[in-house]
């Protein structure tokens, strides 16, 4: 079996919300916003830049200060509050063992991405890891990351697994089989509106999907 599978990170492989929320609260206490922050409205799967732009209403000075503050807090974390979803480690290992090639595309920055993958002992299962700030600090979209993964690895067909509308739309554009994760940060109703090929409620279901297509 030689299948290429591209995974999102936050809300798909890991539940990072408690860790990110703590870092944002500490950041906003040091760099206050001009209006009350509704933490429930924060998109925890979005890029850091987009979250800060929303909070600080494009106030460049505060965005830069908050970005530096957040990076210092989050990048040095032990990530004890960041947890792998059930069966993620087993499933990634099994997919490798049956000949699948795994890739990762995340809106996270590369420094915390690498540290989290190492801390959770899953880095070794991925051939390619793309993060939002890989190119001279310029933020790139999920679609651009996935396009690069497909181009660099000659992927003509494969799978995109993610928990956001952005993930599913990117998969559709690149004609990948899309697997929407219903347990992540997006609502299942919104995901189903984008007509993913599959919707899963547990990560382990990916093995059955891959086996059924082989």
Count of separate structural domains: 2
Question: What is the topology, as strand order, of the major beta sheet?
Answer: 5-4-1-6-7-8
Characterize the largest beta sheet: strand count, sense, and whether it forms a barrel. 6 strands, parallel
Low-confidence blocks of residues: none
What is the class of the largest domain in the CATH system?
A: Alpha Beta
Number of helices: 9
Helical residues, percent: 40-55%
Order of helices and strands: EEHHHEHEHEHEHEHEH
Helix vs. strand class: alpha/beta
CATH architecture of the largest domain: 3-Layer(aba) Sandwich
Terminal Cα span: 7 Å
Description of the molecule:
The chain starts with a strand and ends with a helix. With 214 residues, the protein is α/β, with parallel strands linked by helices. The mean pLDDT is 93. The chain has helices at 17-30, 48-56, 60-75, 88-97, 110-119, 142-153, 165-173, 188-193, 205-213, and strands at residues 4-7, 14-15, 83-84, 101-106, 126-131, 159-162, 177-181, 198-200. The longest helix is centred in the N-terminal third of the chain and has 16 residues, at 60-75. α1 (17-30) crosses α3 (60-75) and α2 (48-56) crosses α3. It is globular and about 55 Å long. It has a six-stranded parallel sheet, with helices on both faces. Strands 2-3 form a two-stranded antiparallel sheet. It has nine helices and eight strands.
